[in-house]
Amino acid sequence: MGYRFINFISPTSFVLHNCESLLKDKEVALSIQYWTIENQDINIHNQYQLYTAGLDTSKPNADIERKWFDSLIGYDDAGRIVPDPNLSAKEKYGILNDPRQSWFINRTVGCKPLGIKK
Q: How many CB atoms lie within 10 A of CB 61?
């Protein structure tokens, strides 16, 4: 596909892919920035959690599980409707609790998750 990307293969080494046009002899400047969060249980919009089928210890964190239940049930622990009916169609679906979003467009008809088309 020609995507430029980097693989970190150890704490002190990496491999660049498809970056030849960016390199000129030994004139290379590479800046890598990252951040960590102390509480790894926080569900943020760019976080993914891997699940391993058949492994008893592999389960979603509490935030993901709660959003899943709220989306399936149609209301949250406080009894508020999920998704919030006052949101626009674009805002109603996603992973956020504020505003109250849902994972499902129509939870009562086959619970078809967003992004999956039949």
A: 13
